[in-house]
Every structure is written in structure tokens, then in C-alpha cells.
Design brief:
mainly alpha; 12 helices; about 0% strand
């Protein structure tokens, strides 16, 4: 090996070490920011968690105590109804895009999904306000769910499409050759084969909307009372955090920290479920 080769080899090793060090540094920086936020959130919120926070509604201004039971119930209502609306539509569109790749209409649909993914949530809230709230003359949990369902569509559609693309076409051809209809092949063969990726997309969609407050300001609006009717206004945890954190009352600040911790724990739980499904039901052929 000549001196030039040795010098070039040393130079490549130096560049490799610099690049590796930068990767480690940037990775540690990202993790450090996440852990600092989680540490501060747990520090401020863990002392606010008590039984009253989960079993009581809000108290009047100046009265100590109270909880966010109405917001917890409202959040569950809004998210569940949004998932019921978005998941069938999102999976259906994802199937269409996976089965019709390269066609002009599917390309237009894919572009529309990309545009929808970039629309700010507050704009979606305003649109639903014009479409539903203003004509009906009232705020409701249903209008909030529709706004959140629109936000859920892009991750569900993208995950469904990308998962079904990974499934070999020979699997579908074999089912069709045995006499199965296209509907039965899709329902009984393709969807079960890609259930891990499709389910992950649904959970990602739920995790995305769980902390949204902007579209709910124009749709669900808020309600200090406990309500189980989807046609009436409801309070949600993000809405309570927004209102209580901007208030001048220390007791409300405490409740806001507790609600923030509950919301983050819910997001962590959803991400854990995603990782479990991805590891156990990963699409492999």
C-alpha cells in the first residue's frame, strides 16, 4: 500500500468518526429534549393526580378542588366517534390507492391526501363550522368528531396503502384463481395479511387528534357539565388545558398540569401499542 493510499484511508476513517459522532450527538440531543419535557411534565403533573381529578367536574372560580371528568368523557366521545367515521373511509381509500397505482384518478386522490395532511387544524375547524355548526345553529361533539376524522384520514390512508403494496400480488391472484370474489379476497386475505400496518395507521391517526384543540374551539366548543349526547357541546382535555393554563388561578394551573400528564400518558400508551403491533404483526413475505 502506497503512502497516498494510507493517507486516503486515514482521511476516510476521520470522516467516518466525525459523521458517527455527529449522529450520536444529534440523537442524544433529540432524546435529551424529549426526556427533559417528560421529566418536567411528570414533576409538575404527578402531584396533581388525585381521585377527584377523574371523578369530579369543574368547580366554580374561587372554590378549591374539582376535576376534569366532563373533559375526559368528552374527549373519549369525540375521539371514538371520529375513529368510527375515519377508519372505514381511510381504509377504503387506502385499498383503492393500492389497487389502482399509476392511474390518473388515483394520482389525483394521492395529491389531495398530501394536501389534506398539510392543512392546519384550525382551518379544518373553521370549514366544519361553516359546513355544520352554522347551518344547524349549535355546537356539538359530532361536529368536532367530523373535524378530527378529516385530520385522521391521511395517516390511515397512507399506512393502509403502503402496507397493502408490500403484500405480493400472487397472494391475491391465488385467491381469485380459486374462485373467490374481489370483495371476499380483499376482506378475508389482503386486510388480515396487512392488519399490523393498517392498525398502526389507525392508532397513529388517533394519537394525532388526541391533543388537538384548535378545531374543537369552532365545533365542540366546550361544556362545564357532564354530557353524553353527541349532538350537544362537550369539553375535552386539550380544551381544558388551554383554558386553565391561561387563567390566573393556581388551582386551575394544577388541574391543567394534571390534564397534560393524562394526555401525554395516553399518547405514550398509543405509541406502545403501535410498537407491539408492528413487532408481532409485521408484514413479511
Amino acid at each position: 500500500m502506497t503512502p497516498f493510499d494510507i493517507q486516503g484511508l486515514k482521511g476516510r476513517r476521520v470522516k467516518d468518526r466525525i459523521f458517527t459522532s455527529m449522529v450520536w450527538l444529534l440523537t442524544f440531543s433529540c432524546l435529551a429534549v424529549v426526556f427533559i419535557i417528560l421529566f418536567y411534565l411528570f414533576k409538575m403533573g404527578i402531584g396533581s393526580l388525585n381521585w377527584a381529578l377523574f371523578t369530579q367536574g369543574p368547580k366554580p372560580v374561587g372554590e378549591a378542588g374539582g376535576g376534569i371528568l366532563n373533559a375526559i368523557v368528552g374527549s373519549l366521545m369525540v375521539v371514538v366517534v371520529a375513529a368510527i367515521i375515519a377508519i372505514p373511509i381511510g381504509v377504503s381509500v387506502g385499498i383503492y390507492l393500492a389497487e389502482n397505482r399509476g392511474r390518473k384518478l388515483s394520482d389525483y386522490v394521492a395529491i389531495a391526501i398530501d394536501v389534506l395532511q398539510g392543512i392546519p387544524s384550525i382551518v379544518i375547524g373553521i370549514v366544519i363550522y361553516i359546513w355544520i355548526v352554522k347551518p344547524t345553529g349549535k355546537f356539538s361533539a359530532l361536529s368536532g368528531s367530523i373535524a378530527l376524522a378529516i385530520m385522521m384520514l391521511p395517516p390511515i390512508i397512507k399506512n393502509t396503502e403502503e402496507t397493502l403494496i408490500l403484500i405480493p400480488t400472487t397472494l391475491k391472484e391465488a385467491a381469485l384463481a380459486l374462485g373467490a370474489s374481489y370483495f371476499r379476497t380483499t376482506l378475508k386475505i389482503l386486510l388480515p395479511a396487512g392488519i399490523g400496518g393498517i392498525f398502526s395507521g389507525c392508532i397513529i391517526g388517533i394519537a394525532r387528534i388526541a391533543g388537538e384543540v384548535a378545531p374543537l374551539l369552532f365545533t365542540a366548543f366546550g361544556n362545564p357539565a357532564l354530557n353524553f349526547n353527541v349532538l350537544k357541546p362537550v369539553d375535552t382535555i386539550p380544551k381544558v388545558i388551554f383554558a386553565y393554563a391561561s387563567s390566573p388561578y393556581d388551582d386551575w394551573h394544577r388541574i391543567a398540569w394534571g390534564g397534560s400528564l393524562i394526555l401525554v400518558l395516553f399518547i405514550i400508551l398509543l405509541n406502545t401499542i403501535i410498537k407491539i403491533f408492528e413487532s408481532r404483526w409485521k408484514v413479511q413475505f
